[in-house]
């Protein structure tokens, strides 16, 4: 950081020198070479005196009228030539001491104001953070230093400057790789604490904090872990880590239908090994679901429910395809996170669907906890569970739960 300010100071000094050198040079020249501003007036006076002499000579008869006219014309010509010569000369700027001081103050005020604006609006903190992270990476790559030493250096830096979410995240992921889950959870918490609320990374950090806490508690999905997954999914309903954790909890509680829903939602944004693991989990959950006895399957569909008839508005038929994904879900009034959801395709519509306990997304929350919910049916043009531009949706508010009435929901609104 010192190098940055030193560089700025040097560049500022160079800029000020470029501006001041011509001014100082002109100031010295104006002192050494004063301009004779009265020269034209003196020439006029000389012209008048000489003309007066010629007029006297002409009146006394010592000068003929023809000679007088010729000499007068010559005087006038010389006066005009003198005046024109003075006008063609480049004017010399006369600068006093007070003017020079004023210019110097203004010139110094500009860089001073720039420093103040940069300190207030600039990214000096981010630059210092980046430099600190680069220094930590350099020390980590040094063969003479151990991982624990490098982490100790990073922790010392974070103790000095805790408002560094990237540094906390780096420390947390390193702790996770060392299976130090409790320390990782604490570092993820610090990273989330110092991230802006509008940061797109916040949901992922909260999900990873929940995962670290889940492992630290021996795979127990307690209220602390659930609270973190809820926060994460409120910010991003398709956050992979949180959905994966909820799927694990549902699977272990033998709620295989919910596990499938969680993992399918996570799969829409997963890639590589993560996507393969989710597919394997979904397949295992389907096998377990098929192995349930008929009584167990019936029990899974008992409890609170909402019956919905989904149809398409004619105005959007030319803008959609049969293979596009449709998400139908219920959520508490005024909230973003759904409590139950199903997935289907456009070519299955119109259709009547049932949202019930078998499609619950939240292990600690179900339709039975609410008397009324909001219903949403959305066509995703990308296949992602998260709402996006170009999707189509229909929604209804304050729908009663466990009402035998079939609610009609039309998809007609385009999301821009």
Characterise this structure.
The chain has 416 residues and is α+β, with helices and mostly antiparallel strands. It has three domains: 2-121; 130-297, Serine Threonine Protein Phosphatase 5, Tetratricopeptide repeat (Alpha Horseshoe), CATH 1.25.40.10; 301-414, Immunoglobulin-like, CATH 2.60.40. The protein is 57% helix and 13% strand. The chain has helices spanning 2-32, 39-60, 65-88, 97-121, 124-141, 147-160, 165-177, 181-193, 202-216, 223-235, 240-252, 256-267, 272-290, 294-300; strands spanning 305-312, 325-331, 340-345, 351-356, 372-380, 392-400, 406-411, 413-414. A five-stranded antiparallel sheet has the order 3-2-5-6-8, with no helix packed on it. Strands 4-1-7 form a three-stranded mixed sheet, with no helix packed on it. A hairpin with an 8-residue loop joins β2 (325-331) and β3 (340-345). α9 runs antiparallel to α10. The chain starts with a helix and ends with a strand. It is found in: Cell envelope. Residues 306-411 form the Cytochrome c-type biogenesis protein H Ig-like domain. One of its GO terms (biological process) is cytochrome complex assembly.
Give the SSE layout.
Layout: H1 2-32, H2 39-60, H3 65-88, H4 97-121, H5 124-141, H6 147-160, H7 165-177, H8 181-193, H9 202-216, H10 223-235, H11 240-252, H12 256-267, H13 272-290, H14 294-300, E1 305-312, E2 325-331, E3 340-345, E4 351-356, E5 372-380, E6 392-400, E7 406-411, E8 413-414
Parallel strand pairs: 1-7
Antiparallel strand pairs: 1-4, 2-3, 2-5, 5-6, 6-8
Domain Cytochrome c-type biogenesis protein H Ig-like: 306-411
Subcellular location: Cell envelope
Keywords: Cytochrome c-type biogenesis, Membrane, Repeat, TPR repeat, Transmembrane, Transmembrane helix
């Amino acid at each position: 950081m010192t190098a940055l300010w030193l560089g700025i100071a040097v560049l500022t000094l160079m800029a000020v020198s470029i501006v001041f050198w011509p001014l100082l040079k002109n100031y010295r020249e104006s002192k050494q070479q004063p301009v004779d501003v009265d020269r034209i007036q003196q020439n006029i006076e000389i012209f008048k005196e000489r003309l007066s002499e010629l007029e006297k000579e002409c009146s006394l008869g010592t000068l003929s009228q023809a000679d007088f006219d010729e000499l007068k014309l010559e005087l006038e010509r010389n006066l005009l030539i003198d005046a024109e010569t003075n006008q063609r000369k480049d004017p010399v700027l006369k600068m006093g001491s007070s003017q020079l001081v004023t210019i110097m103050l203004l010139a110094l005020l500009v860089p001073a104001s720039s420093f103040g604006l940069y300190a207030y609006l600039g990214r000096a903190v981010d630059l210092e953070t980046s430099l600190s992270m680069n220094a930590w990476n350099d020390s980590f790559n040094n063969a003479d230093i151990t991982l624990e030493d490098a982490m100790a250096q990073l922790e010392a830096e974070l103790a000095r400057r805790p408002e560094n979410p990237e540094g906390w995240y780096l420390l947390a992921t390193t702790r996770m790789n060392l299976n130090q889950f409790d320390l990782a959870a604490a570092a993820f918490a610090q990273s989330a604490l110092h991230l802006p609320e509008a940061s797109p990374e916040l949901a992922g950090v909260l999900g990873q904090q929940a995962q670290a806490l889940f492992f630290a508690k021996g795979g127990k999905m307690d209220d602390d872990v659930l609270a973190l997954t809820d926060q994460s999914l409120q910010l991003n309903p398709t956050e992979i880590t949180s959905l994966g954790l909820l799927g694990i909890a549902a699977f272990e509680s033998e709620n295989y239908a919910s596990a499938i829903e969680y993992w399918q939602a996570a799969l829409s944004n997963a890639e590589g090994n993560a996507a393969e693991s989710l597919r394997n989990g979904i397949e295992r959950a389907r096998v377990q679901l098929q192995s349930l006895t008929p009584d167990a399957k019936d029990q899974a569909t008992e409890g609170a429910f909402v019956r919905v008839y989904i149809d398409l508005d004619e105005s959007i038929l030319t803008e959609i395809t049969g293979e596009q994904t449709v998400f139908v879900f219920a959520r508490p009034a005024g909230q973003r996170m759904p409590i139950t959801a199903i997935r289907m395709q456009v070519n299955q519509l119109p259709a009547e669907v049932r949202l019930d306990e078998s499609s619950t997304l939240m292990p600690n929350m179900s339709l039975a906890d609410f008397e009324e919910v909001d219903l949403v049916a959305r066509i995703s043009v990308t296949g992602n569970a998260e709402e996006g531009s170009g999707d189509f949706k229909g929604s209804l508010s304050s729908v009663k739960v466990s009402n035998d009435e079939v609610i009609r929901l039309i998809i007609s609104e385009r999301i821009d």
